[in-house]
Amino acid sequence: MASAAWAVLQVLLLLPTHAWSPVGAGRPPDCDAPLASALPRSSFSSSSELSSSHGPGFSRLNRRDGAGGWTPLVSNKYQWLQIDLGERMEVTAVATQGGYGSSDWVTSYLLMFSDGGRNWKQYRREESIWSEVVYFDGQSALLYKLDKKPLKPVRDVISLKFKAIQSNGILLHREGQHGNHITLELIKGKLVFFLNSGNAKLPTTIAPVTLTLGSLLDDQHWHSVLIELLDTQVNFTVDKHTHHFQAKGESSYLDLNFEISFGGIPTSGRAWAFTRQSFHGCLENLYYNGVDVTELAKKHKPQILMMGNVSFSCPQPQTVPVTFLSSRSYLALPGNSGEDKVSVTFQFRTWNRAGHLLFGELQRGSGSFVLFLKDGKLKLSLFQPGQSPRNVTAGAGLNDGQWHSVSLSAKWSHMNVVVDDDTAVQPLLAVLIDSGDTYYFGGCLDNSSGSGCKSPLGGFQGCLRLITIGDKAVDPISVQQGALGSFRDLQIDSCGITDRCLPSYCEHGGTCSQSWDSFSCDCLGTGYTGETCHSSLYEQSCEAHKHRGDPSGLYYIDADGSGPLGPFLVYCNMTDAAWTVVRHGGPDAVTVRGAPSGHPRSAVSFAYAASAGQLRAAVSLAERCEQRLALRCGTARRPDSRDGTPLSWWVGRTNETHTYWGGSLPDAQKCTCGLEGNCIDSQYYCNCDAGRNEW
C-alpha cells in the first residue's frame, strides 16, 4: 500500500454494461459476501506499480503473497486502483488495510464507479439506511403545529438534510403577528436564512438578519443544515460551514406563531396557495427541537397538516448531466436529417464568459450555424452561401453558474434562439431548410472543416443536460455505452462544476470572479493590490513617507500592512521626527456645564477617523505616543466632592476611567501647575480652584 504520508487514492469499480437484477436471479443478493477476494488477479489494474511484487493483483485483503499489497511507483493523488467486478453488483461496503509486514497504509481515498470504464462517477456518502424522507413536488408543504407552552429562554434547534431538484424554493418558514418571521430559502443554489423581528419602529426589535451559505446546492446531492436560535444569537451551519451571528437589540422571537411550515409558505382559504416559490426536492432527518417531523407526518398525527402532493420516498433524478471537462471536449450527436426544420433544446451551466456551444450544417447547401457564448451572452452566427455572416444575441450574464435553457429552431424563413425568456430571431434566405446529419456540442472533431466549427473562443467548458434533437430526447447513458454518437473528454452522469469563489480567497473586500479552471480578484477601490488583494497600496506609517521625502500633509496609511485593518487618513507632521496625528471629528473645544449634585452628565464623546484596532496598530509602530485632554475653567472650581473624590473624569480606549488632566500624572490629585509649583494662587494645586473670573 501507499505510505502514510500519501493522502488520496482513487478506487475505481468497473461494472459491466449488462443489467443486474436480484429478481432475475431468483433470490435477493447476498450483500455480506466478499467480492474482491474471489476475483482473479487479472481483474485488478492500477496507474503504476513499484515493482512486479507490488502489483495491483496483490491488493486483495488478508493476503501475504507478493510484497503484501499494492504500492504505486509514486505517492500522489493521481494514483488509482481499478477492480473489474465482472458483472453489475450491489456494493455495500469497502474495506482497506495496510501492506502486510509494513507500516504503510492509505489515509483517505475517492470511490468511483463506471459501467464501461470510460466515464466514472464519484460515489458520495449521501443516503442513510435508517432515515425518514419526505418529498415535495414544488406545490406542496407540511404545516407543523407546535406545543403552545414555550419555555423561557427559547432555544430552537432545527436540523435537516435536503436534496434540491430546482435552484429556488422555501425550505421552512415561521412568522408572527407583527411581520416578524424566520425563513430558510434556497435562492439560485445558495441557502439564505432570514430573521426579521417585526416592527422596525420599535426600539427593542433587532435589525433584520440575512445570512447566506453554500453554493451550487441544486446539484441533486444531499446537504445538511443546522439552525440554532437563542434570543438574538444565531448559529447557521450548512455542510460543516458555520456562520455565528449576534444580532443587535432585543429579540421578539417569542411573538412567533405556534406553527412552522416546511416546503413552502401556505396561505389559507378555500384552496391552499403558496405566496412564494415552493421547494422541489427531498428533506431527510427533519427535526424540530428533537421531534421527528417526518415521522409525525407519516403517522398522520394531528400536529401535522399536509398540503399538496407530499410523499415519503425520494425519487432518483431523471436528468443525466454531461460535463465538458476541457476546451477540446465535444459531443457529436446525429441530427434529424431529411426534416425540413432544425430543432434543438438543452440546458447549460458554466462560469466561462466565452465558449463554443453548438455547431451544425444545413443540408442541400443551405449553410451552417454556430451557437456560442461571448461576454456572457449567447450568440447565433448564421452562414449562408453568398451572404455575410449574420448574428443575433440573446440573454446576458449567462456565466453565473446557474442552469439556463436554450431552444434553437429554424423553419422556412427564420431561425429563432430562445435563452430562458429572451427570444432573438434571425431571417434566413428563402431556401428550403434541411437539417444536417450531425450536431457538435462543445467543440468539433479535429478534422472538421465546416464554417464556424473552428472557433477562436475555444470549446465550451461546463455542463449540459436535457438535450433534445427534433422531438427526441438524447440519452447520455447510450452515448456513454457507445450506442449513440461519439464524444471526447466528457464526464457523463454528473455535473463537475465547482464554485472557486466559495470560500473567497480575495482579501480586504476584493470581488471574486471565476472561470471553469481558475478565479481572479478585482481589487478596485479596496486600497490593495495583488492576485488576492493582499498587498496594501499605502505606506504603513508617516515615518515611511518621511523616508520618501514627502512633506507634511494628509496621507492614508495602513498601519498593519496587509493585515485585516484597512487604511485610514492621518496628518503627517514632518519635523525632526515624523509625527502621526490622528484627528477626531469633533470641535477642538467643547463647553461643559455642570450638573446637579448626584446627577453625572456625559459631556462629550470623541470619535476618531480611525477605529480602535487601527489606533492600536499605529501606536504599536510608534516610538512615542501622546494624547492630551485638557480641562479649562472660568469662575468654577475643579469639580470634586467635599471628601476630595473627583467628580470629573475621562474614559480611555480600554474603557478605563481617569481623573487626571493634560500634563498631570495619574493619581497625583494635582494639576500641572501644582506639580510645577506655579499655580496662580499658591494655596491651591489647580488654577481652577482659585475661582478667578478668567480662563
Automatic annotation (TrEMBL):
Highest taxon listed in the record's lineage: Eukaryota
Gene Ontology molecular-function annotations: calcium ion binding
Start and end residues of each Laminin G domain: 133-314, 320-495
SMART domains xrefs: EGF, EGF_CA, LamG
Protein localization: Membrane
InterPro entries in alphabetical order: ConA-like_dom_sf (IPR013320), EGF (IPR000742), EGF-like_Ca-bd_dom (IPR001881), FA58C (IPR000421), Fibrinogen-like_C (IPR036056), Fibrinogen_a/b/g_C_dom (IPR002181), Galactose-bd-like_sf (IPR008979), Laminin_G (IPR001791)
Membrane topology summary: Single-pass type I membrane protein
A single cellular component GO annotation: membrane
Nucleotide-binding found in the keyword field: no
Residue ranges constituting the EGF-like domain according to the UniProt record: 497-534
Fibrinogen C-terminal domain span: 533-584
Keyword set, alphabetical order: Cell adhesion, Disulfide bond, EGF-like domain, Glycoprotein, Membrane, Repeat, Signal, Transmembrane, Transmembrane helix
Gene3D superfamilies from the UniProt entry: 2.60.120.1000, 2.60.120.200, Galactose-binding domain-like, Laminin
GO BP term, example: cell adhesion
Signal peptide (residue range): 1-19
UniProt keyword annotation of 4Fe-4S present: no
Recorded family membership: Belongs to the neurexin family.
NCBIfam families: GGGWT_bact (NF040941)
Protein name as it appears in the record: Contactin-associated protein-like 3
Phylogenetic placement of the source organism: Eukaryota, Metazoa, Chordata, Craniata, Vertebrata
